[in-house]
Each structure stands twice: as C-alpha cells, then as structure tokens.
Amino acid sequence: MKLSELVKEFGLTVKTGAGHLDSEVTGGYVSDLLSDVLAHAEDGNIWVTLHIHHNIVAVAAHAGLAGVVLIQGRVPEQDTIAKAEEEGIPIMVSELSAFELVGRLYKAGIRGAQAL
Amino acid sequence: MTLQRKDGLPDRMTKTQEMVYELTVGEVMPPTMVTVAPEQTMAELRVLLRDNRLSGTPVVENGKLVGMISIEDLINALTDNAISASIREKMKTKVECLYADELLVHCIAKFSKYGYRRYPVLNRDDQLVGIVTKGSIVEGLLKKLEVEYEQAESKVAVARQRPTMKKFFEDVSADEISFIFKYHVAGRSLKEAGKAASELKNALRKMGVCPPLLRRIGVATYEAEINLASYTMGGVIRAQVEKWGITVEAIDTGPGIPDVEKAQQAGFSTAPDWVRELGFGAGMGLVNMKKCADEMNLKSSVPEGTHLTMQFYYTS
User: Angle of helix B195-206 relative to helix B211-231, nearest 10 degrees?
Assistant: First the structure.
C-alpha cells in the first residue's frame, strides 16, 4: 500500500512531507524507544509513536522509514516540523490510540518486521 | 494495483495478472496460420494436420471464416468411414471468435467458459487474422516477461556503473589515501543531537557508499552521537574513509564509563530522566552500535573520557 492510500484510508492528518507520500509502505513498527526503532524497524516501514520531539525525524531518516504516525492527535513540536520538512520525512497524525491504530493497520494488510 | 481478497485483505496483483490486462489477443497470436477450404476432403485435412502438427484449423471461403474443423471431427469421420467427405459436411459452423484488440483477460475467460482449445481471431471488419490456443497465451506472457526482465536487468547494469567507494579506491593510487570528516557534538543536551550523524551520512552517500552500509553507519553514528550528547561533557565524531572501509570514532572529554563491560549489556542504562523522557536511555545504544558495526571497540577511563571506535567494511 502506498503511504498516500494509507493516509486516505485511516484519515490521517499530514503535518509534514506532503510531497513524499508516494512511497510504498513495506510494513510497520510501533515503539516509543528510539533505539528499539533504530534496531528493528525496516526500510520503508511506518512508525507509530507518541513522541513529538525532533529526534523522531533523525530516527526516521536513519532507519529509512516511509513516515511517522503520531497517535492520540498529538501535535509535533515546531522544530520537529521544521526538521521533518528539511529531511522530507512525512509526519502524520491519527486520533486513535496506538493499540487501536496498529490493530486497524494490521487488518489492512500492514505487517510487522519479520526478522527481529 | 491491488485486488480485494475474499477475506478482506488487500492482495498484491501478480505480474502475470497485471499482464493479462495489458496484452491483447493480437499481440500473443502467432504470426502465421494454416487454413483449409470447405471443398477440401477430410483425407486432405488428415495430411495437413499431420504435416503441420496441428489439432485443428479454421475453414475459410472467399476470405471469410465459415467454420472450424478439428482432429476430433477427423476421428469421427474415420469411425463413420467418411474420410472422403468434404470438410464442409463435417466442420463446426457455430464458432466462438475473439477480436484481435480484445484483452487477454477476456480471452482467458472465454477459454474457461466454452472449453474449446483454439479460437479464431478476427479484426473489427470480421476478417480472419489468426488463431489463438492456450499455448500462444503462455508463449505471449513468457515473451513479455522476458522483455520486462531484460529491461530491469539493464537498469540494474546502469545502477552498477555508478561509482562506488570501493571502485574509487581501485582507480586512484597513492601510498595512503583517506578522507576525514569531523563533527563537534555538544554535551548534556539533545537539542542538536543527530546533526553530525545525518551530515556524515549525506557526505558518505555523495561519495557513493551503498545504501545498506550507509544505513548501518548512519544508525551506529546516531547512537554514538546520542551518547555523547546525553552522558558526556561533549566531544567529537570523527569518520575516516579509507581503501578497506570506514572508521567512525566518538571521542569525549569525560566523565568516562566506570564499568565498560556492564555498559555494553542490553538493557543496562544510567540515563537520567530527561533522556528517558525523550525515548532514549533504554540501554540499547551500545548494543545497536555493535550490531551495526563490523568491529567495535570501547575504551574508557574515569574521569578522562571515552573513546569508541567502530569499523565498517565495504560490501560492494
């Protein structure tokens, strides 16, 4: 599924990287430990997190993620937005909790990383 | 393109499924065909089918398709002792046809609907232009797959020609060659942390370091930088690009790690609350770095500081 289709299907609000929604989502990862994401998320995954500070952009860039989805309608910090625009990393917001969102993503065919 | 599966899960369309929506009957149809005239005898048909290794053929009169005759009709004629009968008497006149500009997907549907083995192909002026069998569909699909495979392969070949780090060092010569990138990292603040790693990664990408290696170096350097910013008075990240590979060092000015071995255990952390609140400090940083690097060495003394060395080898 393309990121843009995912945005539409799950009613996500795109906060940054609107021009980078063309990539194919290879799977998903959910964690609020940044090192865990760096270690285990895979290229092209989407990452579900509650963090809103700018370090999420660096993590997404280094892990080669397709985008970051913030949960519970959280609002990214101003410098997070600036950095994400600079790096071309899509940050999207869902009103759902992590559990609900991940459950629905899984139902739509988004799977977690295979080899941990 | 996605198809909806019965259980509600979207499924990827296979390449072949995609191709039956792209190819037309005319494209997979063989360029030549054998036809017979209705006045010819079944005996003549027998010779023609045998010599051309066919199991059936269209019957044409004045350029128009008038019927289909097959090996089955021939066998029936033999059983009835009617080998001298004309084809006209024995042919089937109720014939299912396909149009040359129809998509293969319609053609396949027709095959399974009627169960005939071959279908005459007409143009939109109702003139016979060819014949398709299951064999021609398979051949057509294989041919298209081959073309697309060759195109993909030549793309890969072009990508391979892009200069890589390894290639660069093979092409130039000196007793010693190295590039050094140095970044200063402020301590006790995560505000700017991550900048060095991302700038180093950009530089290495421009030098032609391949993406999988780039990712490993990026992640490991980022973790090292986060450590400098979280736990030390500040320091430098230094990367040295050489013929055999890349060394990344993180060197700080204290306070040092009292127990280096313990610091490398998964889950061990001395992170203060402000670091943990940002999603770091779970005791995974050094473990991650070790996983990413081909070689890692950690030396530390209290209170002088810590010297981390990671080595990455070129893979291509």
Answer: 160
